Amino acid sequence: MSARVAFVLLLMAAAQVTEAQETFIACPIYRDTDAGRKSGCWLADDPKGVRYDVTLAPVKPQVGHLALIEGVLSAEPDTACGGRVLDPVRVAVLEDSCERQIIAADNYPGRPFKSPPEMLAPSDQPRSLPPPPYTEKVFSIYFEYDRDFLIYQYAELILEKIVLYAKASRAKRVQITGYAATEPLVVRGRTLREPIALARSRAEMVAEALRRLGVADASLSLAWHGAPAKTPDFEGGKLPEPSKRRVVVTVTP
Amino acid sequence: MKSALPVEVLMTKRRACSWMKLLAAALSVCGCAGSATGSREAVPTPRALAPETATPEPSISDRYWRAGAAYSFPARLSYPTGTGVITTLHVPGALDTTGHPFFTPLGENGRACITCHQPADGMSLSARTAQEVWEKLGPSDPLFAAGDGSNCPSLPQHERASHSLLLDRGLFRIARPWPPLDRDGRPIEPELDIELVSDPTGCNADPAFGLSSAKPAISVFRRPRPVANLKFATSMGFSFDPKDGLPLEIDRESGLPTSGNLLADDRERTLLGQARDALQSHTDHHGTLPSAELQRIITFESQIYTAVSEHVRAGALDEGGASGGPDALSRAPAGKLQSTKSNPIWGEFSAWNAADSDPQGEFRRSVARGAAIFTGRQFLVSDSAGITDVGFGNPVRNSCAFCHNMLHAGMDVAPGQVDLGTTNLPHANPLPELPLFRLTCRPGARAHPHLGRVVLTHDPGYALTTGKCIDIGKITAQSLRGIAARPPYFVNGSAATLADVIAFYDKRYEMKLSDEEKLDLQHLLEVL
């Protein structure tokens, strides 16, 4: 086997590894690394005892509460926090209690906080309306498992884009469709299932947000459904289950 | 204008400096030498005393503004605090208070807004002022009105014990309807049930005023928030409230977004709503005040700025390269988020890092260190609903400036309410004189994120407005400016001094502050 072929095979193997999806429930561990604000590590051990680094999740765990972990193993080495890195990854905090686990840095550097690449601008900064042409446009907002809470430093950016597009296009109709993953998801023997009422409350939460941001109430139309299809639009299709927990907003000029 | 002026001494800066010189003589420091000739506007008060007759500490009759008296509220009004001088500016200039609705009793209990928002206390009211009013003016003063100036209206009003919470902790009774009402006055189905664990005031079990009365209400006891620097409290840095997970709430009357930074439990979100609420609950005003009068109140309070202007050890706070004091505050933009690296909060005092090595300079450098600790000294913020359950994780490493992040003011730009543990057990300071409630979340309700389904609290806070378990004990952060003038601290007066405030946080978040760091932080707070 030539060195070149071996290298290609190695790359292929690595690609396969990075696509391995992990879904488990764990009692999260906070590693108190000190590399500035928000720099601590979040770790979670799967039932086999494999330790994962879930710090890159948009919503972090809470010590003392079980968490649903859904992520894809990345090629990043485990040197930052001391766990196999999941990226993309989603974490949902469950109400169930577990042991509070805070451990020392143990020479791990942690992950210095980086501001998200796109953040909501202060209110006093002027906004630019999106340019024409104005056609029907679809936006999606994703949620944590079993929550209708609009995720900070994520959802508000999409909401603002919806509002600006609706204003620019003089939208006649803004259709808001909420979804809940009502079909059972079995994780290590435990069945997780979102109630259909959550689909409605997600839609209503988005509707309230749009109203508060100036979208005319008369233009809003709400619907909600269970058992949604997975969508490849979320994290490149790498996280099919979390992709079901969404609200789809269709702006029609 | 009437000449009878209970507030006989309104300290100009000249006179404040005279006081400071007296106090500072032993320390051989006073930053007032340059202003001894008096550069401030004259105080147009008929009986203002000459500087040389000023006493080190004005008596209560000198500094307590009574409702209904005809005063001139000057453009600049200064009073000594224990460690310096608090100065309140009325930006447009002197105001004849005759008939002005902020200063005039409008309800049945003889109070006006000024009764509980005193310039000598940074437009709040200190426990010390309450004590002195009791001693000098007695229980008939409107400050001790039965409705909220006593532990319960049903108690004998002439007895000190009936007013102990106001006198000892500066607390007023706030009666909130239970179940709570929404913004339209409709009952909210609460997610929780309230039981009394202890009721030392008797008001929550009172047949006329308690939870089982004809108009069920829960009585909690809170400090009055300062009516000053309100452009900061009403500013909106961003359109989204991460704590509620929604854009800012819209005011039904104006159709405009609101900040959510006004009241401890967010029961009102506009100055208009706050004025109406206060007129009814604090002045016993029944009926509708004409909108023009309400607007006069709002206009006045929106033009008031208060801050510490001088410190007995640091001198003037706008000298040596610093930009403290109320003048700079009045000109500062509101609603701006601090940046620890590029634009840190309390940068007003960063120039004092290079202060001289004399005693005054030593103190100034301590203030500058305190500012650096405020933004840079990190610790694990844990179990604080409103912060640690909105996505940052629990715990999350950050500093005081994580929440106190609005430049110049120290409140939260991202508005909203937080449970720091000042009212909820197990973190609250011991408060045996306050009622204690057991709140049990109903099935199906989302539990308090860190305390579970049963919470013991002295004040449910924001949950009294929303009826939600997740909001139990959440209290709105308030401005830190002028804080030295208005002890005791926290919503329930559970910290007697600024040192006690720092001690609470040090213990609460296991900050492990050194004695020097604590002192530096205290010095910072003393000059805000």
List the helices and strands and how they pair.
The complex is a heterodimer of chains A (253) and B (528).
Chain A: H1 3-18, E1 21-26, E2 29-32, E3 41-45, E4 51-53, E5 65-73, E6 84-97, E7 101-104, E8 137-142, H2 155-168, E9 173-180, E10 185-187, E11 190-192, H3 196-212, E12 220-226, E13 246-252
Parallel strand pairs in A: 2-7, 4-6, 9-12
Antiparallel strand pairs in A: 1-5, 2-3, 3-4, 5-6, 8-13, 9-13, 10-11
Chain B: H1 13-24, H2 60-63, E1 72-73, E2 76-80, E3 84-90, E4 95-96, H3 113-116, H4 127-137, H5 146-149, H6 164-169, E5 172-177, E6 192-198, E7 217-222, H7 230-233, E8 240-241, E9 246-247, H8 271-283, H9 291-302, E10 304-311, E11 315-316, H10 326-331, H11 359-376, E12 379-381, E13 396-398, E14 417-418, E15 436-441, E16 454-457, H12 463-466, E17 475-476, H13 498-508, H14 515-526
Antiparallel strand pairs in B: 1-4, 2-3, 3-10, 5-7, 6-15, 8-9, 10-11, 12-13, 14-17, 15-16
Please provide a written account of the structure:
- Chain A has 253 residues and is α+β, with helices and mostly antiparallel strands.
- Chain A has two domains: 102 residues, OB fold (Dihydrolipoamide Acetyltransferase, E2P) (Beta Barrel), CATH 2.40.50; 116 residues, 2-Layer Sandwich (60s Ribosomal Protein L30, Chain: A).
- In chain A, 19% of the residues lie in helices and 31% in strands.
- Chain A is built from three helices and 13 strands, in the order αββββββββαβββαββ.
- In chain A, the strands form three sheets. In chain A, strands 1-5-6-4-3-2-7 form a seven-stranded mixed beta sheet, with no helix packed on it.
- In chain A, strand 2 and strand 3 form a beta hairpin.
- The longest helix of chain A has 17 residues.
- Chain A is globular.
- Chain B starts with 12 loop residues before the first helix and ends with a helix.
- Chain B has 14 helices and 17 strands.
- The N terminus of chain B is likely disordered.
- Helix content of chain B is 23%, strand content 13%.
- Chain B has 528 residues and is an alpha+beta fold.
- In chain B, the strands form seven sheets. In chain B, strands 2-3-10-11 form a four-stranded antiparallel beta sheet. In chain B, strands 6-15-16 form a three-stranded antiparallel beta sheet, with no helix packed on it. A two-stranded antiparallel sheet of chain B has the order 1-4.
- Chain B is globular and about 65 Å long.
- The chains are: A alpha+beta (253), B alpha+beta (528).
